[in-house]
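User: Please predict the structure of the protein below. I'd like the answer in structure-token form so I can feed it into my own downstream comparison script.

Assistant: Understood. Taking the following sequence of 435 residues as input:
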Amino acid sequence: MNLGLENEYQEFKEGLGQLDKGLKSLTSMLNKHGHAIVYFGVDDDGNVCGLSIGKNTLLDIRNRIRDKIEPRIYADIQEFTDDAGKKYIKITASGLDTPYSFDGRYYLRNVSADEKASNDILRKLLATSDSDILRQKSSPIQELTFTSLFGTLAGNGIHPKPTKEFYSNYGLLNRDDKFNMNAYLLSDNNEISLKVVVFEGLDKSVMSKRTEYGSRCLLVAISEVMQYFETINITNVNLNGPLREEQSLFDFPSFREAWVNACLHNDWKNGIAPSIYMFDNRIEIVSYGGLPFSLSKEGFYHGTSVPVNKSLLTVFMAAKYAEQSGHGIPTIVEKYGRDIFSFDDGMLKVTIPLSFERPEVTVRRKGIMIHKNSLTENQKQIITLLSSDSSLTLKTVAEKTGISLIGVKKICSKLQELGILERVGAKRNGKWIIK
């Protein structure tokens, strides 16, 4: 069986001992044409010579692609058998997020050869790259509806129709005219969920409330989260001074800018949504992907606009959720300073401090004080000990306090009934939480 000739779109390798060379050819063809095919088990003349394929061969190839090729590609790896019973492997890949590298090096296809790309070529590849991954990645579901999106746009003077022209103009179709990840995020039904979690205290030890806003149009979910935080943003009135002073729990315009930016610039291609965590003294807004490569921290603080998801920005702007003026981050910096932003492990976290203690926190704290004041000395002793080391066993607590093991068990059971003490995790590896 003959598969033709090597050219700028396909490469032949006789065996898997040449796997790295074949993957290098894969990246060189992607950089040249955005499409590549590499065969293994085929000689230079296009004749199938066959190769041995084990149980994990295809998985090993996929792992090699994952480890050696950047940016990530999703190749189609197939095993075939020709009429003579000879087995061969076909790897097909497409992508326009150029330049692609193999093992940190860049190549460009020239007829049937892989030539190292010059710096000038790399600059041109970067300039022409389509890095809007959301626009090119197909939606996992193609039967999508957009009732909520159409309603939101209609409320802003845009009256869309479910036509190919509209979907294309607003970045909801990829090059194959299929609904893309933008469309999936903005559709009426999806599996994306925005998470709001409220904790008791200053860390994540005790969770008091978790709410999921999702499985619907992203714009609607974003709005529902903002409505929730607008509701809890109470105002504290101070009448002790000569003038009436009002202070909000937090600056809502800054919160809104941080939240919309988190959702707009999030790295959505892996399906991980931004989250909000609320503690007794602060709100943390977490998104994924970090800063764009071309944007410095200084540029970020000054409002330089480098949209990560360009086509998603088009819809956000049409829906009046965002604008490209770049004033959002400077607005936050002016109110809270630069220190509320942190960049760690591909995450961007915005920490908004609360101006005063929320009423429910005050009630909880006073309740704990009442409980503590009514506790026995033995109960207080055990609480103090478990506060210093939450991993202690009851046997160790008994040894350290001089209270019998039976007595310790009774005291801990009573503290759990009062809601002061909680056991989390397995019996052996769990921990105690003082509430």
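That's the full token string. The chain has a mean pLDDT of 88.
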